Amino acid sequence: MPADTSSPIPAVLAKLGPLDADRVADLRPYLDSVPDPRARRGRWYSLTAILLVCACAVVAGARSIEELAEWGGQVSGELRTALGIRCHLLGWRCTPSIATIGRVLAAVNGDALDAAVGAYLADRHRARADSATEPTARPAAPTFRRTIAVDGKALKGSARLTAKRRHLLAAVTHHRALTLAQAEVGAKTNETQHFRPLLTPLDLTEAVVTFDALHSVQANVTWLVEIKNAHYIAVIKANQPTGYRQLAALPWSDVPVQHTASSTGHGRKESRSIKTCGIADELGGIAFPHAALAIRVHRRRKATGHRESRETVYAVTSLAAHQATPAELAAAIRGHWGVETLHHIRDPTFAEDASTVHAAAAPRAMAALRNLAIGALKLLGADNIAKTTRAIRDKPQRALPVLGITISRSIHGT
Predict the structure, then answer these.
(1) Cα-based distances in Å from 391 to 58, 201, 347
(2) b/e 201-219 (16+ beta carbons within 10 angstroms → b)
(3) Which letter does DSSP use for residue 27 in this model?
(4) Which spans in 89-109 are helix H?
(5) What's the burial of 191, exposed, middle or buried (CB within 10 Å: 0-12/13-18/19+)?
(6) Cα 163 from chain centroid?
(7) 145 near 66, Cβ under 8 Å?
(8) Are the C-beta atoms of 412 and 83 separated by less than 8 Å?
(9) pLDDT greater than 90 at residue 259
């Protein structure tokens, strides 16, 4: 649908470029794979239509079930047709109500919805990477191998007097922070049990998986290397006492600093240095499977008005010295911590922690829709999700092309 000539396209939307079918995959086939939990009798809306309304509303910045329904009520008849809303015998098309959306999100299969969202984002990410390698494409700067972080997040607002808050575990790409897989784990202490089921559907061949000390479980790491043919970078802390003592006892004072980096922002100055040390099996190695390099990261942080803090972090990786430079290892470790930026977007921009949605699968479904919106916008080049969603909110028709729903081929910048 062409943009209204009377209202110029905001600069944040112009960055997204032309949103045509050749560049943006259609979300609907992926949503069709989610089973409908409702009885056949009495259905008016298809499940795909309801989920599509919710997804477009979240792209436009909707934070609650009420706002999802409000966005649907604003769209025109032509857009309702594109969304798959059935036409009544009297000719009108009414979008789902708050009650309908709430019931569907509470009953939807969370595993299937997360799988559909992850597959959609992964396919778009793969298509974007393939187009960048075409001979006619502009040559890109060399990048480190594909890196995926495994990290958890609590949905604080989902807690009730009779129920604990929900906890989700996700596999997120370092670049653009795309959520490829997500699972509900009940509590943070259950994350290690869901490590393998979360990553099993993903193709991790030659990829690097990063995770914090909680997931540095030897059995999971062995499975990752031997079964999934992946590499890892694991932070080692006191929960692995033998490995931690061995790493700390290495002659780090004799190893020169191999890479340094510093940054300033958000009221603080931070500097980081990294040292690496080869681990020879014939000299005893360390008590961690497939470890090839030991890593020591030293961080200094000085916040305005506070004393300087220092922290030393030890890690191990299955990557050998010829497979990754110290700078690449430092970027991968920092990239894992940078995944917290995805949580920052979900909290302030979409008010996830303030959301009181708590019925059955609804909290997880809302989280999946937020992951979908953030990933789709980042794949199009959006660098400020909050500004982009505000610009889309003003014109409901701008949300559809972001998810591959086009009415005409003349859409540019949504």
Answers:
(1) 13, 36, 19
(2) ebebeebbbbbbbbbbbee
(3) S
(4) 98-107
(5) buried
(6) 26
(7) no
(8) no
(9) yes
Bridge partners, 316 (sequence order): 234, 294
User: Reduced to 3 states, what is the DSSP secondary structure of residue 108?
Assistant: coil
DSSP string across 181-192: EEEE-SSGGGGG
* pTM of the predicted protein model: 0.89
Residue-level length of the chain: 414
The residues, any chain, with a CB within 8 Å of residue 279's CB and separated by 6 or more, are 285, 286, 291, 292, 293, 294, 316
Q: Is the dihedral of CA 392, 396, 398, 403 positive or negative?
A: positive
HEC sequence for 272-337:
EEEEEEECCHHHCCCCCCCCCEEEEEEEEEEECCCCCEEEEEEEEECCCCCCCCHHHHHHHHHHHH
Q: Which two tokens stand for residue 360?
A: 């059955």
- Token code pair at residue 352: 């996830």
Dihedral angle at the C-alpha atoms of 119, 211, 167, 201, nearest 10 degrees? 30
What is the rounded distance in angstroms from the CA atom of residue 65 to the CA atom of residue 51? 12
Q: What pLDDT, in 10s, does the model give residues 100-137?
A: 999 999 999 999 999 999 999 999 998 887 766 554 44
- Do 332 and 144 form a contact (C-beta atoms < 8 A)? yes
d(CA 168, CA 137): 38
Q: Which 3 state secondary structure label does DSSP give 14?
A: helix
Q: From the CA atom positions of the chain, what is the Rg in Å?
A: 23
pLDDT: which is higher, 339 or 397 = 397
Cα–Cα dist 339/40, whole Å? 41
The 8-class DSSP code of residue 346 comes to I
Q: How far is CA 414 from the centre of its chain?
A: 22
SS3 268: strand
Q: What mean pLDDT, rounded, does the chain reach?
A: 88
In 3-state terms, the chain is what percent helix, strand and coil (to 5)? Answer: 40, 20, 40
Rounded CA separation 214/219 (Å):
13
Q: DSSP assignment of 153-164, as one string?
A: EEEGGG-BTTBP
| Segment 331-360 mean pLDDT | 88
Residue 190 burial by CB count (10 A; 0-12/13-18/19+): exposed, middle or buried?
middle
* Mean pLDDT, rounded, for 83-89: 88
User: For 143-171, how does the pLDDT look when each residue is reduced to its tens digit (9 = 90+)?
Assistant: 568 999 999 999 998 888 788 889 999 99
